[in-house]
Amino acid sequence: MATTPEPTTRVRRIPELQRHDRRELDAVLDAGLVAHVGIVDDAQPYVLPLAYVRDGDRLLLHGSTGSRLLRALAAGAPTCATVTLLDGLVVARSAFESSMQYRCAMVFGRCTPVEDAEVALGRFTDGLLPARTSEVRPSRPKEVAATLILELPLDHWSVKVSDDDPEDPDEDLAGDAWAGVLPIETRYGLPRPAGDLRAGIGVPASVRQLEGQSITPPGAGGG
Asked: Backbone phi, then psi, for 125, in 5-degree steps?
């Protein structure tokens, strides 16, 4: 499933790096954890780092009802949510040609509050830690009331992927400088229990299943 770029979603800088397959969008969004969400409020631009999960054809963004900027998003302010995955440093034979390997997705549109906040909070929780809601108590009404879950439809988006080796000019190839790619990988570590955790409580399955796993999908970041 591919998309045709619109004026807003067309990549202008190195357009050959743009990807048009919806599956590539999903892959980037499913590998990330934080979206940087832009908004202009009273002529002042802000960029908010928000936890998110992809739920089918929408992003679910998590925040507090006490946030003025989150309330502005909920009221329909136009926004852009950006997720960037850094896969490696491209080490060229010159500083000019050195760069990065990355996958970047941008989603444009307007957010709306999810009507059933309790159900959305459960989906959000299980999106970060699958099946976690089955291990914890139900959310209290005051907790649900203090939580704002916004949905941003995946209707207008752009994906750009840079995954090549250094592109040094021919005159530099005979030099003695090393060139290549230094991969960057984000990985879950070993679970660390809370200082006030009662003795005898083991690491739950929702946490254990992610222990040691790489967030970067296999094959990504290779030049």
From this structure: -60, -45
